[in-house]
Structures are given as C-alpha cells and as structure tokens.
Fold:
Amino acid sequence: MAHAADPIDRALATPIGRRLMLVLGAKGAMGLCAALGVGTLMSLLGSLTSCYRAPGTGRDQVIFFSEEKELQFGLSAYRDVLRSAPLSDNAEINEMVQRVGRRIAAAANKPEYQWEFAVIQDDNMVNAFALPGGKVAIFTGILKHTKDDVGLATVMGHEVAHALQRHGVERMSRSILDQIAQLGALGAAVGGAVNPGAMQGLLGAYGANVSMPFNRKQESEADYVGLRLMAQAGYDPRAAVPFWERMSGCPRQMIGKLCFRSSQAIPEFLSTHPSDLTRINQIEAWLPEALHHYHGPGGGVVPPPAPPYQPAIGPMPQSS
Structure:
C-alpha cells in the first residue's frame, strides 16, 4: 500500500489532519481509513475551512464546512423529512406557522435562504427545528405550549437562530474530532454521496432528533439571538418568559422546589438546554437589549443600554 503513504503524509502536515489521525489511532480505528478510502479522507480534510465568529455574539467557532455545502445538506435533509413525515392538514395551524415564520424570516435578513415552513402532525413530539437554507419544521406537539403567535415566535426565533449561528455544522465539525462513529457519514456527505446515515447525522445535529443534541452554550446563544429576532419581527420578547415557564410545567417560583419534572418527562426540545430557572433568568437579563429592537405595543419605553452578550448566570456552560 505504498501509494497511500503520500496522502497520509499530506494529512499529517496539517494540525487538523494530525489531530484526526491521532484520534483515529487512539480509538484503534485506522481500519476505518481503509474502509472509507484515503481519497474520501482527503476530501474531508480538504473541505475544512477557517475559524469563524458567530454572528450576533462574536463567539469563536470552528466550522469545517462551507456555507454552500451546508445549504446542500439542509435542502437534502428537509426533502427527506417531508417525504416521510405526516404533514398537518389543519388550515388554521398552517396559516399561523406561515404567518409567524415569514415575520421571523424577514427579521433574520438572510435573503439567500429560500424560506419554507412545514407543520408535522405529531402531537406527542414537543419539538421544532430549522435547517440551513431556511427550512423550518414545527411539530404539532409543541403548539400546546406556544398557545398563540407570540409563543410560536419564541420557538421559531430560537430555532432560526440555531440555523443562523450555524450550530448544526459546528456540532458536526466537532464530531469529526470527537465522534469517530460519525466519520463515515460525514465523509460520504462531503464527497457528494448523500446517504441515509449522513442525513440522520445532519438531522440530529439540527435538533430534528436527539442523537446529536446541541450543547448548552449553543442553546443559550440561540435563546439570546432568538429573543432579538422575535423582537425585530414585532413580537414582544417579554412573552418568552411565560412560554418557558409553560415548557417547564411549573410556576416560576416553584421551579426546582416543590415542582419538579423528571428526566423522563423532558421534551426533545429541551434535551440539553440550560435548566429552566437558568434559562428564564438569562432571558430576563437579556430583555433590556431585546426591547431595543421591539417596536410593537408596549415597546415605546427605551430601556437602558445592555452590556455585550454574556451568560447571565455564571460562566457559559461547556459542552456536555
């Protein structure tokens, strides 16, 4: 196999390549390189891009995929979901989702995204997700918590924020280094062969299931950016607090005291989120800044300037 030495040497010549090879070796997974083929491995390494700063917060990100490739992932995954998911035929619900979605999309100011909104009929699934390219899905199970347009705007702002902040490919990029089991699917995706395994990895990375959930740092960032999006869209960001109280299942003053939610009862939408009380406290700390962007009813009083983005309760949580 002498012909394989040169590409491997080229991989070892880069910091990312050395890290990847080290992890592969440490896991005893060099056989995976043979299974994938050195060409696929080099295609993966060749797709790596530079560090980024997250829009709206300035947080450093490492993302190994171009936005063009990310949009391809999103479109393919969304079409895959729509082919298999039972879509709601409730005209009132669909109209509400389209109405709120269009306003959040306008606030997102991402004209290159071709925004689409779908409602998946599943009353047991308390979840929602937004894929790259503006592909958004809402499960009917979360509507019992949103109640109205402004509650739905809280959810859609949060989910659209995940897509704007590129949290999914950030998570996938981290997986190249930390989750060897994902390497085959990611390599196939980068090589242009979009297979079911790659699609499941992408859907998990964007919260469509819980196989690869966001970490708490990303969740807090999505809360922060989503709060601003809903305010810019004309929805009172103060309504985010009662929404998250409804999601907790407890009155705020009882959260973590006499009112508990078992881990088995946590919806998919909250799988790795900050604790209920931490989230609500953070949102309240960010409200003065969000209200600068809100011009609807009750938004006439300009609050004092808010400090730059930072977690309100201690240091930003690390990846789980």
